[in-house]
Amino acid sequence: MSWTAIVLAGSRPGRDAFAETFGTDLKALIPVAGEPMVRRPVGALLESRNIGKVLVMSQSPGRIAAVLPEDPRVECRQSKGTIAETMLGLLKDHETSWPLLVTTADHALLDSATVDEFCAAADDSDISIGVVERTKLLRRLPETRRTWLKFRGGAYTGANLFALRSPNVRPAIELWRSVEQDRKRAWRILSLLGPAVLIAVALRLVSLDKVTARLSARLGLIVKAVQLSNPLAGVDVDKAQDHELAEAILRGEA
User: Of the candidates 31, 9, 217, which has an alpha carbon nearest to the alpha carbon of residue 126?
Assistant: First the structure.
């Protein structure tokens, strides 16, 4: 199966202090190991046997396109104001080729093996969400700090990998739009499943699979969490400490 990869390379409104420390106003252009950050996940996607096309979405597509590999499978497009609006635009576009794998420009440590693993695991669902289990990540990087979602049986961090099977996922995008501004607050997202689920998660009475089953019922879709084997899939470059860590890993020093 040939997937279309979507790389979200947009910017948040206002100044980006993190990007400015590297002499740019676009986070996607921050250099990582000597090359613009966005180029790294795009390269990993192009190396995957599952990816047929890569669409890079940005408010500055011309500037992003200038640093990407010259490959006929890569295309830069103008993004909308928010992630949800960008994704809804793709849903409405009759030329969009499904299924979609969605990732982000700051996924600087993404590799093709992880992309292939995720695509294979996502094959039997409408929506899949990549996660990394805490024990696995801390075994590899004991000092790292991540945002953890804690459930019965384990805690997980997101891996910035999402699979969308068809335009039928619209209800999920609409649900995401309602909490997009609070995407870093796990409790706000879980509250959409009702107070009983929120309390059960807080008390660690339910597993991750139970929560995705509840979300599946809410949306009328098959939602799946994919636990990835490479712990580095849980590391993105969202702040200065992440940048230092990513470069140390790429140098073989962490």
Answer: 217
- Alpha carbon 254 to its chain centroid, in Å, reads 23
* Cβ(23)–Cβ(118) below 8 Å: no
* The pair of three-digit structure tokens given for residue 43, joined into one six-digit string: 């390269």
Contacts of 190-197 with C-beta under 8 Å, sequence gap 24+, read 192/218, 193/218
Check if the beta carbon of residue 178 is closer than 8 Å to that of residue 192.
yes
The DSSP symbol for 97 reads: P
**pLDDT values of the chain reduced to their tens digit, one per residue, 254 residues:** 799 999 999 987 778 999 999 999 999 999 999 999 999 999 999 999 999 999 999 999 999 999 999 999 999 999 988 889 999 999 999 999 999 999 999 999 999 999 999 999 999 999 999 999 999 999 999 989 888 888 888 999 999 999 999 999 998 888 887 766 555 555 455 555 555 544 444 546 578 898 899 889 988 999 999 999 999 999 999 999 999 999 999 999 98
Select from 64, 57, 80, 74 the least CA-distant residue to 28. Answer: 64
Instruction: Report d(CA 32, CA 245) in Å as an integer.
Output: 10
Q: Secondary structure of 174-234 in the HEC alphabet?
A: HHHHHHHHHCCCHHHHHHHHCHHHHHHHHCCCCCHHHHHHHHHHHHCCCEEEEECCCHHHH
Q: Report how far residue 152's alpha carbon sits from residue 219's, in angstroms, rounded to the nearest whole number.
A: 23
Beta strands in the chain (DSSP E): 3-8, 31-32, 35-36, 51-58, 74-78, 100-104, 127-133, 149-151, 154-164, 223-227
